[in-house]
TrEMBL record:
Native organism: Coccomyxa viridis
Name of this protein: Citrate synthase
Classification via Gene3D superfamilies: Citrate Synthase, domain 1, Cytochrome P450-Terp, domain 2
Keywords from the named record: Transferase
Family listed: Belongs to the citrate synthase family.
InterPro entries noted in UniProt: Citrate_synth-like_lrg_a-sub, Citrate_synth-like_sm_a-sub, Citrate_synthase, Citrate_synthase_AS, Citrate_synthase_euk, Citrate_synthase_sf
Coiled coil (UniProt feature): none
Top-rank taxon: Eukaryota
Pfam short name (any one): Citrate_synt
Gene designation: g707
């Protein structure tokens, strides 16, 4: 039933009786229209739609820009077109209109009722359709094939870096080291016309996404296991292959990896990693350049690196006041952190004004699989205490936890203890969102990004 509903969304199927199609699809994977074919069919319609929006609404206002907004990191300015997801401050993220709980029900899992396979989310972000299990399995197989070999020079470059190089530095460098493979750079150099850009951008994006589990595992095994590598397993799905090549096997850790890799993919267009990828891509830098730029932004402690910071902070608590602190001790610890001029990692958000649904679904995973874990209990205690303290302090616009407040504790439980590595896992997932949008940005022919800036002198002259 689920696969029939999903197939219904495919334009390629419209001329074929659904029951007949479903039967053929279950007989042979090769008859399922592949992701690129489905996407190719959708592009002209969306190009026309954008043209019509420009024609009809091009001169309408979306809001005003105040000096506070200009000084305050452009907060509240709607200045980007981003198709793959939309963030509601109260409700949280929706991917192509679907909330996380909806996707946990609707996207195919490795087994019925399991966590969504990130390949399914990739399909959804690119096409707007919920894929069938057959389509997801075919995409898994395609990614496994595209990702099975990491060029040897990437390992050489990484192992030549000084010991102690942060895994995010390695990740950004490894991504750039793949850039010579760019099909888009080659196609552009040959004079490919603008209308065809999306095709080599698609190829680069899929090749890069496919290779990321191998790259991340390479960094992990080089950094923490003396370079003792574990080969790619062509029979595993994309996320399970990531855990497997890192050396963490078992159905539960695979399920966590599938969930983690699904929920971190996309958070509309204005967050630092998405915006950086989009900005650099708008200059027609290829996906390797643009995603590497996004990773450099994700590596900041106010953005993706906060998951590493949360873990360190939790360890700090346990070192100072033990594994089972009281509410009062935690409250004091939070005040001490604030009074020392630091932020509480994992809390607050630039747009969200409620608990992040990505936090909630990780909490539900923990309640199901590790309800008695002491670190989970500690995280839950912080959930009870921190918002009240932040509200009392009166500075933050959102006192609630974000995605980064929870992820590290789950990873710790399954033996992924190296917190410096956590942002790499975030980055692997983020590729799915930002590169999907990158394909659409080129398909829609979006222009180079170039907002206007202003000096204080000019501001005073203009407004005095
Ligand atoms: C995947 C992600 O990127 S999710 C975010 C991950 N980052 C973190 O968890 C780091 C902690 N959180 C923060 O630093 C912030 O909440 C951010 C960066 C996420 C958002 O920043 P903003 O949009 O500027 O938040 P907001 O408007 O609420 O900030 C107002 C004030 O409260 C402070 N504040 C915001 N969050 C916190 C926090 N968690 N702890 C202490 N102070 C905070 C800000 O630093 C700012 O102080 P200032 O006026 O002295 O400059
Ligand atoms: O939306 C943001 O600014 C930060 C965030 O949660 C993300 O990028 O996942």
């Amino acid at each position: 039933m689920r696969s029939l509903r999903a197939l219904r969304g495919l334009r390629a199927v419209t001329s074929t009786a659904l029951s007949e199609y479903a039967e053929v699809a279950t007989r042979s994977l090769t008859t399922v229209p592949d992701l690129k074919s489905v996407l190719r069919e959708k592009i002209p319609e969306q190009q026309e739609r954008l043209k019509a929006i420009k024609k009809q609404y091009g001169s309408k206002e979306l809001g005003k820009v105040t000096v506070d907004m200009t000084i305050g990191g452009m907060r509240g300015i709607t200045g980007l077109l981003w198709e793959t997801s939309l963030l509601d401050p109260e409700e949280g993220i929706r991917f192509r209109g679907y909330s996380i709980p909806e996707l946990q029900r609707m996207l195919p899992g490795a087994k019925p009722g399991g966590e969504p396979l990130p390949e399914g989310l990739l399909w959804l972000l690119l096409t707007g359709d919920i894929p069938s299990k057959e389509q997801v399995d075919a995409l898994s197989a395609e990614l496994a094939e595209r990702g099975k070999n990491i060029p040897a020079h990437v390992d050489t470059i990484l192992t030549d870096l000084p010991p102690g190089t942060h895994p995010m530095t390695q990740f950004s460098i490894a991504t750039l080291a793949l850039q010579p493979e760019s099909r888009f750079a080659q196609a552009y150099a040959k004079g490919t016309p603008k209308k065809d850009y999306w095709d080599p951008i698609y190829e680069d994006s899929m090749n890069l996404i496919a290779k990321l589990p191998g790259i991340a595992a390479l960094i992990y095994r080089n950094t923490y296991f003396g370079g003792n590598k574990i080969p790619h397993n062509p029979n595993l799905d994309w996320a399970a292959n990531l855990a497997h090549q890192m050396g963490h096997d078992g159905e539960e850790v695979y399920e966590l990896t599938r969930l983690y890799q699904t929920i971190h993919t996309d958070h509309e267009g204005g967050n630092v990693s998405a915006h950086a990828t989009h900005l650099v891509g708008s200059a027609l830098s290829d996906p390797y350049f643009s995603f590497s730029a996004g990773l450099n932004g994700l590596a900041g402690p106010l953005h993706g690196l906060a998951n590493q910071e949360v873990l360190r902070w939790l360890f700090d608590v346990t070192k100072k006041i033990g594994q089972e602190p009281t509410k009062e001790e935690v409250e004091q610890f939070v005040w001490d952190t604030l009074n020392s001029g630091r932020v509480i990692p994992g809390f607050g958000h630039a747009v969200l004004r409620k608990t992040d649904p990505r936090y909630t679904c990780q909490r539900e995973f923990a309640q199901k699989h590790l309800p008695d874990d002491p670190m989970f209990r500690l995280v839950s205690l912080f959930y009870e205490v921190v918002p009240g303290v932040l509200l009392k302090q009166g500075k933050v616009k959102n006192p609630w936890p974000n995605v980064d407040a929870h992820s590290g504790v789950l990873l710790q439980y399954y033996g992924i203890k190296e917190e410096n590595f956590y942002t790499v896992l975030f980055g692997v997932s983020r590729a799915i969102g930002v590169l999907s949008q990158g394909i659409w940005s080129r398909a829609l022919g979006l222009p180079i990004e170039r907002p206007k800036s202003i000096t204080m002198d000019a501001l005073e002259r203009k407004l005095a």
